[in-house]
Amino acid sequence: MDSQGKNEIPPPPKRSPIERRGPKWILKPISIFLTTGDETDTVDRLFVSKHVNDLRLIVATVFVVLLLVLILAFLAGAWTFNVTRPPPGVTSDPKQLLEASTSAAKIFLKLFAPTFAVFGAVLTWAYQVGSARLGVVDLFACEMDTLCRVITIVDMVRNQANKYEFDPSKGTPDIKDKKDHPAHFNSQEEYFPILASNSRDLQTLEANVVINITAFYTFMKAVRDTLRQLADAKSVEQWQESMRNVIYMLYLGLESGRNAMDDLVEFEPTHTERTMVILLSELDAYYFLRCKFHDPKEMHFDRLILRGPTYLTLVPKLNDVLDCKAREPLAKAQRGELKNPTYAERQWLAAVQLRDSLNARFKQLKEKFPLECMATSDRVVTARISVN
Q: Were 338 and a residue from 56, 333, 370, 382 both cysteine, which residue would form a disulfide, CB within 3.0 to 4.6 Å?
């Protein structure tokens, strides 16, 4: 450790691994009979997804009550049977034994049957509410992934960065005529139909999930608003300031989208593949912003510096996941044995195809800028090495 190691920023605290295991453990006897082993199946997700923790807690509580009532009903039935059966030592009368058994069964059913009916009703309600909530989660995840995927497919970040040197007053060597100056941007399309029709359903999700989803859509709307400002730029300074704002909003939107994927997508390989798609554009935007905001006295510089360690951890982690999970489908494909690949195998192979591009952009970023950060005082956070 270097002499300044004591000033390194500590990693964020991790959530306790035993947190909320109680309801899962309590409901495990039920899950054994109901789950299929497919982590994308709705029933399987209801037993493990963090988005239905409250519902699991309710069902687990009712299940515990059901077990307690079962024990109580059994004891009451046994006591009734012992009271009504013939005394020990007396010749047993089959009729008396039948009457004692009948009385015990009636007491048992009288106590246990209503509780079991309530448990069944709660289980049905929890399934309906939980499946609907998971459906909302999937809808938001799909829409956000599609928007981020479009940004990556059209290479929007690099296209915008390539226009950074455009001179709206004189033109550039590549744009001779002023008529090629971008026309006024006016988007009339609704690109967020899921948000528009399901925004009220967000209130059923956890706070961190709602924060990331809301931030993504807000930044994406800010991108559209900022693009409109480009047509109003009259000087190089105005143009470049607007372009920096466009790419900054894109970066924040992509970052929020990636964080939202961590919250919304809880199964593989979908999570890994979607994260890699977003990172392809996010790293480009981060590289551009680090180039433009290079003054340590600038607020944006410090805010960008704080993001560096995330990429140092995230990209190697994704590579480790691919090395572990994608090895088998990749080996099958290389041997020509992947005739009818499953959805999971196709997703893993799609993620493998993105690996080289992602690693190349990450390598370019690491070679240009230091991604570690440290605290030089109680209030100042900066890069470990001076920016070249």
A: 333
Any domain includes 32? yes
Q: What is the pLDDT of residues 6-43, one digit of tens each?
A: 444 444 444 444 446 788 888 888 888 888 888 888 88
Q: Tell me the average pLDDT across 123-138.
A: 92
Residue 382, strand partner residues = 374
Domain count, the chain: 1
CA distance 195 to 200: 9
Is 273 part of any domain?
no
CA distance 74 to 219: 60
User: What's the chain's Rg over C-alpha atoms?
Assistant: 30
Question: Domain for residue 92, yes or no?
Answer: yes
Tell me the CB-side half-sphere exposure of residue 166, using CA atoms within 13 A.
25
Q: Residue 232 pLDDT more than 80?
A: no
Report the b/e string of 327-340 with b at 16+ CB within 10 A. eebbeebeeeebee
Domain of residue 127 covers 18-135
Whether 72 is in a domain gets the answer yes
pLDDT at 163: 86
